[in-house]
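Morning. Coffee machine broken again, so started the prediction first thing and wrote up yesterday's gels while waiting. Chain of 280 residues, entered below exactly as on the submission form.
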Amino acid sequence: MSTATPIENINYWRHPSLSGIELSQAEFTHFSFDKHVHLDYHLGVVTQGAQQFVNKGSSYQLGQHSLSTLNPDETHDGQSRDADGYRVKVMSIPVEYMNEVSQELGLKEHFFSAPMVDDPTLYQYFIQLHELLIQGQCSALAGESHLLNFIHLLLERYPSGVSSGISKLNPQLGLSKLQVSLVKQRIHDEPWHNTQLETLANEVSLSKFQFLRQFKQATGMTPHAYLKRVRLELAKKSLSHGALVADVAQQFGFFDQSHLNKAFKQAFLLSPVQFQRRML
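Came back before lunch.
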């Protein structure tokens, strides 16, 4: 009795008139995303099968008729719910773009209160919009008009939740959100720097062991895993704008081009060169 060959496939696009908007489409069977973060808002739908993921300690199942609404810098994972795998369409929207739309609606910033919403209308709208943009044949005016209409509808139907900003010390986690933000900001400001665990721990007046444990409790990732993901996300952005792979590796703290290739392919299933060709 033969079994079907596992399919792990992903493609990336961007519409020439929508700078910073990244589109992807994938089909997975056994591939599993480790805990990670994104620098942008990630919206997505499953068109076949179902994806299960953990966000903020709660488990979710993203099936047909639902839309994922992941905020920037929120730790999550992802894998197929069933043995047959799933197909997914994703759009990443830069924070600056989302903030601009939010301000037009009278909001200072937007923060989705849940990582997914059940909304068949938005689900179908997203699929149509995604197909329109990856084809790349619509005009700049048409492409951005449809995108803005979709975002307006999404934000109107699902107003901003409570911000995940500064809070008081949480005795269960140890680190306050302010302290976590300070550490994350240091990583974002100097992603190329070979930061030492002791340096980050000193930032919040903890021992290395205390900091390592409490940062992981607060974010779901170790400091090293978080730094690595930030480097990879920034590498994607630079590659999308045509930077040389060797320069990107050096710019964001990878040992060499080979190190970037291995980490990039492990995270995104494509080499940096393959990703760049698709985006350019």
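The radius of gyration is 19 Å. Going to sketch it on the whiteboard this afternoon.
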